Amino acid sequence: MNGRRLTFAVGDIHGCLAQLDTLLDAIESSAPGGRVIFLGDLVDRGPESRGVVERIMAGPPKAGWQWMTLKGNHEDMLLAARKGHAEMSSWLMNGGDETLDSYGGAIPLSHLVWMAELPSIIVEPYRIFVHAGVDDAIPLEEQDDDILLWMRTEPNYSGHYWGRHVCHGHTPSRSNPRTVGNRTNVDSGAVFGGVLSCAVFDDDVPGGPIDFLIAGRRR
């Protein structure tokens, strides 16, 4: 992969720190530099949400790398949990208990601020990176977080997406990472006994991924 400008788009981590470290090692071994985009859902359900957040907040340990992070619906639920009892209950029932345990019961304000400031989408000439997906029946500039963080896309659907390729996570499947036409899903269900995966894109070439990298083994 040397000589190319590469982007590695990482699927839902959900507190699986060991798999994240394994995948990051594989990414750094595959190229001398590049960009890593974390597609959201860093937290909840898995055992080491705090470790995952701290690892990503610290940034790349090697020169030549850039890390970018998108907000997922689980970061959205975590932040909403501060609003009231119903929101807190919803978050706890969806993996928030494990996150609180990893933090010893209290999440630092610096982590909350960092999550709150995460963008929901990255739009580039050739690609769109987003946590859940985009609705190609609605103008791109009118997409809101209800869509970007929460929508579900049928497994075999591929839209036009304004001439771009969409890369997302959010909907786990053992058949992922998988590309269908103009859309790639990299949520391989790491926290559900699957693997943590990423799609590799050549920044200078339109279209889908040129490769996939996978950490861990399927059960």
TrEMBL record:
GO terms for cellular component: cytoplasm. It comes from the Bacteria. Keywords: Plasmid. Residues 9-172 form the Calcineurin-like phosphoesterase domain. GO terms for biological process: RNA decapping. InterPro entries: Ap4A_hydrolase, Calcineurin-like_PHP, Metallo-depent_PP-like. One of its GO terms (molecular function) is bis(5'-nucleosyl)-tetraphosphatase (symmetrical) activity. Signal peptide: none annotated. This is Serine/threonine protein phosphatase, putative. It comes from Sinorhizobium fredii (strain NBRC 101917 / NGR234).
